[in-house]
Design brief:
Length: 483
């Protein structure tokens, strides 16, 4: 079919569509929305539309990251047994740990012309030797200047000898919409820099379980092993995310990839500028997602928000006027649907400012509360202690649980009491089944509020030679009886 024929067909289709609409109006029939005609490219410029200009502006800011880590690996434990050494000989020696070098590769993004590079923690965190290879194949040793496993992000620094390096500016990732075109640039499978295209498939994915702050951009741009730490780029050439993981049953791309939003990257870089210490606000409240059942019980039109079930009496949320039973529906005008989304929204805001919480009361009233953005305090002081002696918790390292420590351990910040940090192998506490992150609530019916109080009660001993220890583990409370 010639171009002239196509144009005539399109013009005729539009006339027929208009006539059908006129008939519907004339006879009172329902009018359907017109479907716009598909149009073939009208010029050479339209035929040759390409992502090449965006790639040329951005690809030089995406780097390869190679790491080497010395891993101590124990040889076969069978060599500890004299019976087996009879067969292998005494030259086999004891099963002393052996060292081997573990190599990995990933990608990274230059975010500052001085040589600051952002990548994933699982790419470079804990590595002994890190090499960054630029797009022009130059290699630089890199050092970690900030690492945060909770966000799966690491900031690297290379010495560019005063050279101004190409970099990507960070865009507000909240401006993204489902359906936006994006490019993923990285080094999949170590084949070299590769560009793939796709769209934003979903926003605010929180049930991925990759990091503590689970809130991801989902894209169908092909992401494969080696892409981790690479750039997710918008059509204006800005960085909207750091490619982090894929959903796959085979190890290859199935069109479900996840990227850390650039707003989280920005908060990590802000921590670097603040002296390398990340300070994030705390809410001082915990809750659960509003399910369909909860929405029906509360006569809500739809499931939405986070139902508050716990408050720290001295926390920012309580001082802002939040109550148990309230539903937080948004932060600064952005909707939240579950606790992970709420944590992300709070975590990306700067300490010292204020946020506006959209709240739905049990009465049905909608209110706005001003939340002061404060760093979680280390009150009470940790007072870490290793319990020893002839006591049932011997071998447990404990500390006072403050909002700062709770936040560090990813526990509800309204939690209080004495928390178990470590349990020595083979100790009394270990044999009792005690685990790190357990909270000691009471001894023989007496509430335990501090490490000093715990040690005082243990030193007194038990009147009937039996100990009853109440432990909180997650959402469960258990009682251990020792005697």
């Amino acid at each position: 079919m010639t171009t002239t024929m196509l144009h005539a067909f399109q013009r005729g289709w539009r006339v027929v569509a208009f006539a059908a609409t006129g008939a519907a109006l004339l006879f009172g029939l329902p009018v359907q929305a017109q479907v716009p005609a598909q149009v073939v490219p009208q010029s050479r410029e339209q035929i040759t539309l390409s992502f090449a200009p965006v790639v040329k502006r951005t690809a030089s800011a995406v780097v390869n990251v190679y790491t080497k880590t010395v891993v101590r690996q124990r040889s076969s434990p069978l060599l500890d047994d004299p019976f087996f050494r009879r067969f292998f000989g005494d030259n086999a020696g004891p099963s002393a740990p052996r060292e081997r070098v573990q190599s990995s590769l990933g990608s990274g993004v230059i975010v500052d012309p001085s040589g600051l590079i952002i990548t994933n923690y699982h790419v470079a965190g804990g590595a002994g030797e890190i090499t960054v290879v630029l797009a022009d194949r130059r290699e630089f040793p890199a050092k970690i200047v900030l690492a945060e496993e909770r966000t799966d992000l690491v900031v690297l620094q290379i010495d560019a000898k005063g050279e101004t390096l190409p970099f990507l500016a960070l865009r507000d990732s909240d401006d993204l919409e489902v359906g936006d075109l994006v490019l993923a640039i990285g080094n999949p499978f170590g084949v070299g820099q590769t560009v793939t295209s796709g769209i934003v498939s979903a926003l605010a994915r929180t049930s991925v379980g990759i990091s503590d702050y689970s809130f991801f951009i989902q894209t169908d741009a092909a992401i494969n092993p080696g892409n981790s730490g690479g750039a997710l780029i918008a059509m204006d050439g800005s960085l909207v995310g750091v490619n982090t993981a894929i959903y796959s049953r085979s190890g290859g791309s199935l069109g479900i990839g996840f990227a850390i939003p650039s707003n989280m990257v920005r908060s990590v870089l802000a921590g670097l500028k603040a002296g390398g210490k990340l300070m994030r606000p705390w809410l001082g409240a915990s809750g659960q997602a509003v399910t369909s059942d909860i929405a029906a019980t509360l006569n809500l039109p739809r499931p939405q928000g986070v139902l508050i079930s716990g408050l720290n009496a001295k926390g920012p949320a309580a001082r802002a006027g939040l109550r148990v039973g309230d539903i937080i529906t948004g932060v600064n005008g952005r909707e939240v649907d579950d606790p992970d989304g709420l944590r992300f929204r709070i975590a990306t805001l700067p300490v010292g400012a204020a946020a506006t919480l959209g709240v739905l009361r049990r009465s049905g009233e909608r209110v706005s509360l001003s939340l002061p953005l404060e760093a979680p305090p280390e009150v009470p002081a940790r007072d870490e202690a290793m319990l020893q002696g002839n006591v049932p918790l011997s071998g447990a390292k404990v500390a006072n649980l403050s909002p700062a420590l709770a936040d560090e351990l990813s526990l509800p910040t309204e939690a209080a009491g004495v928390i178990v940090l470590e349990v020595a192998r083979g100790s009394v506490a270990s044999r009792l089944g005690l685990r790190p992150r357990d909270i000691v609530m009471s001894l023989n019916g007496a509430d335990i509020e501090s490490v000093a109080g715990l040690r005082r009660f243990l030193s007194r001993g038990s009147s009937d030679s039996r100990w009853r220890i109440a432990i909180r583990r997650g959402d469960q409370v258990m009682t251990l009886v020792v005697g």
